[in-house]
Specification:
The protein is mainly alpha-helical and 215 residues long. The protein contains 7 helices and 4 strands, in the order αββααααββαα. The strands form 2 sheets. It has a two-stranded antiparallel ribbon. The chain has a two-stranded antiparallel ribbon with strand order 3-4. The two termini are 35 Å apart. 5% of the residues are buried.
């Protein structure tokens, strides 16, 4: 009832109600809304935004985060120890080709899934539909939620894994029955995942007329 009265359809939202009377009253005491983006979710960003909305200087009082420096120190030590052990125990020349292949595929999947668009536009992680349920996809190709990138990237990764197994590993199986079963299994998974991608594309592009298996 409160959300309906204030015409709020999505949460979280940060609304500022300036004083309308008293020594700190503002000439324009109408409510102001502050967009919750990545830069405003820090103490410095929130205080700067509040200061600009209210017309006053706000200095945040931030205690020293010793845990942050401890975690950074431990992470650097762990990374150094891991690199040293890998250099001593693992033949990196043998793994170099596979490591580069995995890293390249992961980078391509990340970029083709909209990661850079998220970094530039800083969209919300997910949304809320009119009925109140969680919305994972924006039904337009001009906007997206951050969770869309993760869903699409995982789906792309499953499709890539299926193709790698079908091309490189399935033909090497000696048993004809097992080879047939593995081939049919991963072809079915590939078709299902690609059909899901097609349904997502139909959701983002409502005029797209074709479908595969899923609506």
């Amino acid at each position: 009832e409160l959300f309906h009265k204030m015409k709020i359809e999505q949460i979280p939202r940060l609304m500022v109600f300036p004083a309308g009377a008293g020594p700190h009253a503002l000439a324009n005491a109408s409510p102001r809304e502050m967009s919750l983006k990545e830069e405003t979710m820090t103490p410095e960003g929130m205080s700067a935004k509040l200061g600009s909305l209210l017309g006053v200087a706000i200095k945040p009082d931030i205690p020293v985060n010793y845990g942050k420096y401890l975690r950074m120190t431990l992470a650097v030590q762990a990374a150094g120890a891991g690199a040293y052990l890998a250099y001593k125990l693992v033949n990196l020349r043998m793994l170099g080709r596979n490591l580069w292949a995995i890293a390249t595929i992961m980078f391509v999947l990340l970029m083709t899934s909209g990661f850079m668009w998220n970094k530039i536009n800083d969209p919300p992680y997910m949304g809320q539909a009119k009925g109140g349920e969680v919305a994972l996809f924006v039904p337009t190709n001009n906007q997206q939620f951050a969770v869309e990138t993760q869903i699409v990237a995982v789906t792309y990764a499953v499709c890539a894994l299926c193709i790698v197994i079908l091309v490189r590993h399935a033909p090497k199986i000696q048993s004809a029955d097992q080879r047939t079963f593995i081939t049919l299994l991963f072809v079915a998974v590939l078709m299902l995942m690609f059909s899901y991608l097609n349904s997502v594309f139909r959701l983002k592009m409502p005029g797209y007329p074709f479908k595969l298996l899923l609506e």
